Structure of Rhodanese domain-containing protein:
Amino acid sequence: MKEMAAAEKRWRSQVRDGKVQLLSPKQAGYAAQLSDHRILDVRPSTERNKAWVKDSIWIPLFDADKGMAPDTLLKRFSNFSMGGWWSGSPLMKFNNQFLARVTEMIPEDSKVIVVCQKGMRSLAACEQLYNAGYRNLYWIEGGLDAAEEGDLNREGPQPFKFAGIGGISEFLGWTDQQRIAGAKEGWAYRAVFFGRTVAIVLLADALFLGAQQLSQILKH
């Protein structure tokens, strides 16, 4: 935790030191449409596949680790049991080809707006890009979670704010993003998730009763 806090402090210092310029989502949208700024999306595929900025370049800094080696499977199980089942967040691994792919696709003198879902991974990416020679770097504070519809030219099946949610919490509608949406959309929206919650409670109850009956049968 201390290492992560120190890294976050170091990443944020890039903005204070002027190495990275701060933009709001709306400013980033204007810059991408009206000038030669390029948008670099460093999110994992699990988020990118739900929503992305039109014409953005996708090179993940981290992506889901789908390896089947015994140690990786153990890590994946641990990640799932420690909250991945609830949040839908998979085990991630660093993309060793990140810098190589960026330098292949984006010239060093380009104006690059680096985006992720919440803002931290994009700052980590900015640090790597600055050290590699990029000097025209821009960052969206709060990431795409902070973007309202219309701020950026979105493509994909979900709003930007929903791209970072998943797992059982999304299925039941218990994320902050869905609660806010429910307050705007009304009872029809919330009824869907209420029905899902009731269905899960009934299923859990049926499984419990079934287990009790099976236990009684086995005793006899």
